[in-house]
Amino acid sequence: MILDLFAGPGGWSHALTVLGAQDVGLESDEWACKTRAAAGHTTIRTDVAQYPTWPFTGKTTGLIASPPCQAWSMAGKRLGLIDQPLVHQAVADLANGLDTRSKLLASCRDERSLLAAEPMRYLHALHAAGQPEWVAMEEVPDVLPLWRQYAQILRTWGFSVWTGIMNAADYGVPQTRRRAILLASRIRETAPSEPTHAQVAMHDTLFGPSRARWVSMAEALGWGATDRPVPTVCAGGGGGGPEPFPSGSRKALTTSRDRGTWRPHHTGSTAPMSHERSSWMLRSNSQANATVRRADEPAGTLFFGHRVNECVWVPDSAAPPASDPGGERKPDAIRITATEAGILQSFPATYPWQSTKSRQFEQIGNAVPPLLAAQLLASHLGTRVRQSDFGLAA
Questions:
Q1: How crowded is residue 5: how many other Cβ atoms within 10 Å of its Cβ?
Q2: Domain 2-198+369-390 belongs to what architecture?
Q3: Options 69, 108, 234, 311, the catalytic residue
Q4: What does the pLDDT average to over 200-224?
Q5: In the chain, which residues fall in CATH 3.40.50.150?
Q6: Is 69 a catalytic residue?
């Protein structure tokens, strides 16, 4: 089996499904488990820190882990950085079969910090059975020193290991989400897949293959694309063509009769608008230093939780004013929908998020982008990722 620790709503799981595999996810959050169930992912609802390791020994091919990031994230108090020496100690102890978690936890400023050491408890137990064959782990960038400690230990156990920071936008996700990654394998040399995208499109050279331009929010949401059917975002649609606003497209504003909210909508016009840019921007929160990106760019890192209602679409002040065909004014801000947020995280528009809106946003913000996950897992599974399987141009 493939064991997925802290499985969340299914970022890794959806990636595996697309690649023709599946995992067994361990997750404690009730609504994340219900989302996983609705999506068809196998789940054990449990506390990863309390669940025994013996059911998996001798049976596990791959181990995936994305420990909760709240203790380390820039969106929180970052007490994990203060607790980091304790986490390093826990990893070292667990690698030697010593369980000092209770003692160390009593000294932690944030009880969630020590969860980043939990994968080592499972790895130590599996190593005794000569498993797993491979490992993939993901966290916020500040956890990279911890992943390097894991790497040193895994190398002594016969693994080839790579650690580093990866930008999800470089792999086709419409979001510049940077994450610390660890990849390890017992059976092959380990390295991440070559990036498929770049901020500026690149042609084939002696130094590497071509790379497409970063996928914009507009392209991912289907705003302005003309080479395939484009459902409106209000109807929960996704998809989009290879460029956000190719020649032969035009945008207007329309209202959703269902919700009464505004959304850019493709009009089907053949008027050339190749130099037009989006008239909408996404603001990540209400703070002064919030990331603000135009819709013809990738989103910044999406995080929600207590800021669930602060991620909003706002008019681009540099763009010409626009109104709907009836002459009504464009509103000052529109809250992002769960469907839109999921698409920007590279989930399909139809992904069955469960619970209240706030809980759905929390699940989305905590999830691994499935497209990035697929790129990380492809070499372990001996397969390749097709962008089109995630609603993007091949």
A1: 23
A2: 3-Layer(aba) Sandwich (3.40)
A3: 69
A4: 83
A5: 2-198+369-390
A6: yes
